[in-house]
Amino acid sequence: MKILIENLNIAIPILYFIVFILYFSNFWKPRKSLARLKRIILFLTLLIHFFYLFARTIEFDHVPITNIFEIFTLLAFAITLSYYILELITEVRNTGMFILFIPMVFQIISSLKIVDLLNVQEILRSPFLGVHVFTALAGYAGITFSAIYGGLYLMLYKQIKMHRFGLLYQRLPNLELLESLNYTSALIGFTMLSTAIVIGIIWMPQAFTNPSYFDPKLIATIFIWILYALGITTKIFAKWRGKRIIYLSLAGFVVALFSMTLLNLLFTGFHKFH
Amino acid sequence: MNLISVTINHKTAPIELREALYLSEIEIRKILNQIKETLLKEVCILSTCNRTEIYGVPSNHSITYREVQEFILTQKPVTKIKSDNFLNYYSCGAANHLFRVSSGIDSLVIGDQQILGQVKDAYNIAVEENCVGTFLQKTFQSALKLGKRIKTETDLFEGPTSVSSAAVQLAGKIFSDLKKKSVLVIGAGETGKLTIQNLIQKNVTNLTISNRTFSRAEKLAAKYNAKVLPFDNLKERLNEYDIIISATSSNSILINRDEMSAAMRKRKFEPVCIMDIAIPRDFDPNVKDIENIFYNDIDSLQTMVNLSLEGKKALLPAIQKIIMEELIELFSWHNSLQISPLLKSMREQFESVRSQEFDAFKNKFASNEVENLELLTKRIVKKLLHNPTVYLRKSADQVDTQGELQLKIKILKDMFNLNSKGNESE
Asked: Are residues A56 and A5 in contact, defined by beta-carbon separation less than 8 angstroms?
């Protein structure tokens, strides 16, 4: 089993790379045969990735959430699965190249650095933690989507305003749809993140004897939450449209990225367990 | 392939001549029946504003394009027309021309979407008039299949081909569902009308027309089931519309930047798409700097059309390849029609020789050997026929422009003395 996990650890980033290349090629040169192939390979990648996560859980006797690199592979899976569902339920077909770049990077970093921990603290086996991590990851996947579609909105907005009718203009979905994807993803991300924060705050005193509410990651997450809350409130009540809302979602994403990568690597708060 | 085509189109004749030769459906039906009795045993006529074309299988070998041209001109006399105004095609040239027409690459504007429907209508009329036999049926069905392939396998029919279609397509790049958007068309002239037609094709229902002369707006609105906005109320109600298409003949700017800013404030900066296709422009071009206003004038829309046409031209090699594939398929079918009777005759003759010889010699063998003997002779005949059959089928699969297949058929017929049995398809 361990050898299989090691092999999958090498194969999965390669599969993500192949998927990304297929989506990239199809963006530049749309061909129906390639469009079918890219979706099949994406599905297989997800299937293999799921098996890999399942195998790790069985082999190491804990859900792969014990260190940042396990979180990265889970996050890659969550973003890819969300994109796959989006492709299935909407007419959005040509934006995969922009989304799938992110899980590819997360998975490559994870595969390079991941460690196999056999003995983990009992606290990491708590079901509360499972829900907390799941909702937090879904939240991060949501705001990643929101940021990417926000970025694409700004690019297309500029192309149309400047009368440039090139490749981006031709391939991207319409502005209204991009704005709606940006907002819906932000809304889902915000709801999930709120749940993660609430569960985390309730559970923290039970799990730790002397928890600190000044953990950098907690502060960063609260800051992200405020940004999104602001965005959603202004969209609903002040009827803000387009660019202004999108700038807010992009700011939220930058902070989230900072929280997920730099803070995790630099600081050792309660969010760093090993 | 005994197919001829006589055509007059935008490449060979000016619009006056094309108009003069245009045939209505009633005229087409009449001519089809007359021409079938005299010149062409199978015939189909395609007549649009840009082309009039006759495709047919001559009743006998002496009939050429000249007789067909003369016949058409007797039915529809046109002065000043010369033989240079016609293009004439034969055999695979005629099929190739029909395929180019139905693919949309022979149209005045490359990638014209209407032509495939027009070819289909022409074919259906010919079928209704009993003017289509096996050959034209297969040829036109291949042409229609080709058109569908071009539609699904290439982007030829994507992208705008005119300023008005560019305007509508651009609006579709801003909004998800044009059906739900309110559209204002300012100006009830020809350009306004064309734009409305394009909008209707995109299922726009919430349509309002405003024109300086109210009665013209009313007339156009009645035709397209639209509302009318009095011209005097235009400025104060600009905020109500998501898409504004302006095509008036006004000599000065109708809406300035401040008026548009006020309208945007009223609609809380909800996006607006303005297509100013008037010359001179109806909107102050500076409105483009206002947030969430997507302003396009005729120049930017024309750029879009030009880009789209360039893109379509780049598809030509891929389209030619699809045309070639369909031509090969048509020719293989046609050739197989020619070799089938020959193969049948050959098999019959070989079998006749075998059975005669078998009957003559079977008494010289013991009764328990007769069955094996018959099997043996049958196997020998089958093996002897194998190579010629494969050879003929292979020849039939290739495009034959030099009449090579005919030559091969003739040699085989002479060689095995099959002429008396005939080859019905010729």
From this structure: yes
* Number of residues assigned to chain A: 274
Give the one of B173, B288, B300 whose C-beta lies nearest to A174's C-beta: B173
Give dist(CA B217, CA A149) in Å, integer.
Answer: 41
N-to-C CA span, chain A: 23
Are B243 and B175 in contact by the 8 Å Cβ rule? The answer is yes
Which pLDDT belongs to residue A273?
44
Percent over 70 (pLDDT), chain B: 97
Chains A, B: CB contacts within 8 A come to 46
Please give the helix or strand (H or E) that residue A91 lies within, else none. Answer: none
Distance, in Å, from the CA atom of A121 to the CA atom of B182, rounded to the nearest integer, reads 61
pLDDT in tens, A194-226: 999 898 888 877 777 777 777 777 787 888 888
Hey, is the C-beta of A205 within 8 angstroms of any chain B C-beta? no
B290 inside 8 A of chain A by CB: no
**Average pLDDT of the residues of chain B:** 88
Query: Above 0.85 for ipTM, yes or no?
Result: no
> Which two structure tokens, joined as six digits, stand for A164?
């440039």
- Where residue B269 falls (left for φ over 0; alpha for ψ -120 to 50; beta otherwise) is left
Q: CA separation (Å) from B284 to B182, B281, B289?
A: 22, 7, 11
Checking if the pLDDT of B306 tops 50, the result is yes
Q: Which of A165, A177, A239 sits opposite B176 (nearest CB)?
A: A177
Report, as ranges of residue numbers, the positions in chain A whose pLDDT lies below 50: 270, 273-274
Q: Could you give the C-alpha distances from B158 to A35, A96, B111, B161, in angstroms and in order?
A: 18, 22, 8, 9
How many Å lie between the alpha carbon of A96 and the closest alpha carbon of chain B?
A: 19
The answer to whether the CB of B167 falls within 8 A of the CB of B275 is yes
β-pairing, B243-246 vs B87-90, is unpaired
Please tell me if residue A165 touches chain B, with a CB cutoff of 8 Å: yes
Instruction: Count the neighbouring beta carbons within 10 Å of the beta carbon of residue B333.
Output: 16
The residue of chain B nearest to residue A176, with distances taken between CA atoms, is B175
Other beta carbons less than 10 A from residue B332's beta carbon: 16
Residue B311: how many CA atoms within 13 Å on its side-chain side?
A: 19
The per-residue pLDDT for range B322-346, each reduced to its tens digit, is 999 999 889 888 888 878 888 888 9
**Rounded Cα gap, residues A244 and A249, in angstroms:** 9
Tell me whether residues A156 and B173 touch, CB distance under 8 A: yes
Pick from A173, A186, A182: nearest CA to A230: A186
How confident is the model over B331-388, as pLDDT tens digits?
Answer: 888 888 878 888 888 999 999 999 999 999 888 888 888 899 999 999 999 999 999 8
